[in-house]
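General statements about sequence and structure are easier to judge against a single worked case. Part of our work consisted of pairing the sequence of a single chain with a tokenised description of its backbone. The amino acid sequence and the backbone structure tokens for this protein are reproduced below.

***
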Amino acid sequence: MQISQLPIPFLAEWVGLEGSKSDGRLPAYREVDSVTHLFNIEELKTRLHSINWDFTNEDTSYLTHDVHPYPSKFIPQIPGHLIANLSLRGDLVLDPFCGSGTTAFEAVRMGRRALCIDANLVGILVGQVKTSRLDKPALQALRALHSTLLLHLSHLPKLPEKLVEQVQQFVPPIPNIDKWFSIESRGELALIRSSIQGLESKTAKDIACVAMSKIVTRVSFQDSETRYASKPKKIEVGETIKMFLNALEEVVSDVARSAPELTYGVARFECCDTRNLPEEEFPSESVDLVVTSPPYGNANDYHLYHRFRLFWLGVDPRLLAGMEIGSHLRHQKESTGYSSYRDELLSCTKQISRLLRPGRFAAFVIGDFLYDGVEYSGGETVASVGQDAGLDVVTMINRKVHGTKRSFLPAGRRLTQESVVIMRKPERQLLINIHAMPYRLWPYEDTLRMREIEKLAATNAVTKDNHLAVSVDCRHYAPLRRLAFSHSIKEEQGAPEKTWQAILENGIGLSEASRKDPKYVTHGLHQYKGKFYPQLAKSLINLAGLQDGARILDPFCGSGTTLLEGYLNGLASYGCDLNPLAAKIARAKVGILELNPALVTESIDTLVEKLKGVPSELPIETNQFAIQAIDEILSWFPQPVVWKLNWVLRAIRSVSAGILQDFLEVILSDIIREVSQQEPDDLRIRRRKQPIQDADALGLFYQRLMTMYDRLVSFWSIRGYSPYRFWKPTTIAADARQRASFEAMGVGRDSIDFVLTSPPYATALPYIDTDRLSLLILLGMTATDRRPLEQHLTGSREITVSERMLFEAELNRDNGLPGNVLTFLRDLYTTIAQADVGFRRKNMPALLLRFFLDMKKVLENVYWAMKPHTLAIVVLGDNTTNVNGRPVVIPTTKLVEDLARSVGLELLEEIPITVTTEDLFHIKNAIKHNLVLVFHKV
């Protein structure tokens, strides 16, 4: 038979599969949204008992849940509802009898982490594949395996003798093998197994092993999956390989379909005996929830069901038979009874209790069973065993079992209902040690650190052995994962756990970095003058005490620091900025994290290939720039650089669109000043003293691209540890002085839970001048376009003479500003009018009046958008001007306080965040003299 005639689909369609066998109709669960609700036991019981646990008409085989046969597995809706109701995002969910990984899949799908234990290698392997993600190396390896086996298939039955000899060693030592396997099927299985062994990708090897395991029973003489008896049948030459290739495609297709649901999943599988879990590998009190279905007493024989699969996977099933809890055959052979089963279950439950954190839940799904003609209640047995292991019973729920879901063994086939037993480890007071970040904190950061600890722990902290400690009830453990200026937390009887902030900065290992990283995730996407750094924003969010999913607003979003921190910390972020480049940066910085990593990687890979294949002579083209901008571009960039920038833009736009295009263009924007004739270190318009003739724009872009891609990959790898759900952000280029801008973001009256912003400081920074070349290259904004935008920005220091005169006249009118603000401005105007100063000093009173009028409009809109009794935090600083050689302080913070009061906001406190120059050796342009103004809407 020719290869072209074989009924074997090729792998060209393996990638990009979406949806599921349920046509995308995946079960949706209402998740508990806070520690308060999680620990409200009466409310919890009401929620659980309101669920119809029979799931009679629901799809139970969506995505990878039926990737491989497995006996007596529980349907995914059961662990799904339990995980949703008994745990929080980022929690670690344990299944100590994981079977085929149903709990793991549902845990990962809902933003939890999974730890799965089973003595059966088949279950571990299936679970790993069920929660795996195909990457390029795995896919390439599977394509190669597919092609190799097709070639072997085309030569059957005349394979080279040398190959036949090589694969003989891959035939396992199955007793009475002739009774169970034909020469043809075992030879082809050995060929498959030998081919799999050569795969370097672990993911590819696991997937191929599951595909092989899936067909072992079908190509054997075993009567059926559910009947262990030999029944010889004719198996044609090549049939085993063809079955494997079909199974391989089925498994790969299932994994590909599941990928969107498991993109950031964190799942660990361990093949071991739950009765004996070493402390060093499984630390005490490190698990947040247990969801499991223990082996039913005298009901199943997993070692028998998977006997031949285990042999072909290189494991002797007799080892599993000797340790299998609840085995029907073991009961018959060893005359073990109910007491033995209960003792073994107790050993496991003691380990479960040791691993579980205080106050957290363990859910067991189990049916009744029969020993020596006596029926035992599985629910009562588990409840009794759990209590002996130190757990309390919360509630018990009975559910009907479909006839098709029962065991194939007579001992288990009688099962008609199961019990869902919810237990809980007793609460106790915890002494939690909180370790600081390994790098130096500024004094005000130490103060904020103490405040956020006491806010999240709801108690005072004490100093203990050079670190802080809090004594709290166990419900306050999880919130401490959210600390901004702390590295790890450790309960005295548990293992250390890194905070989400430490993971974001340094990854999941306990290794410590000696320097603060203000550029983690995408914070370093683009330079932006005057932004406040992310750790401060995170700490202030903690102090606000927000619920997950709360709506946070930044009306001066700049490059998106607040928006990104809101996103990373479980808030729905809304922001706007009048500077279109700032809005583009902010939109890209957060929006890129919402895109599928596979799509991002594919586009960047394609772009990198284009960069590697750049022609030696670039075309002399300017077609990627706005026509009206070309002359100005040629005046600010050497011609070779113009051709390079045009080529890169065309490459970017050919492989991307939307947010991804924004992201790639912003990376290009970040190198614009370096390859231009502008002095890179000067904020104002000033040319280099020595003009450049050319610059390595392509090399610089490639370096920045790789740096940002590496940061994305790092974030994708740790995203599954987040204690938050991620909410899609909203960012637009708009004017916060206009109510319509808020409405365009979807922000309505009394709709915002928290405002965090750092407004432009009065006349401090020339934002448009700083970014003018990027605005020119990316948005086609010429000097003519930029000038009115610069003048219109809040805090701009650009003003015409006629505008200045109008504002100076306004100083003597009642314009709605508070008296203190007007008094200061009038005094300043009088002082400057009498002084011998240049035009910029003469402009100052008018500029400041315009600034405070603008700020009042923004604060009025902010007040309108805020819910009652919510906070608005403004990070702001004073600046100075010189009159006749004498410094005059502009008390911006005090005057903004007065403005806020005038619109109805109450000042709760001022938090100084001043640092000394010597504290700034590792952060250029850091904040020096600022205040955090905390306002409250009454």
In short: DSSP finds 36 helices and 25 strands in the chain.
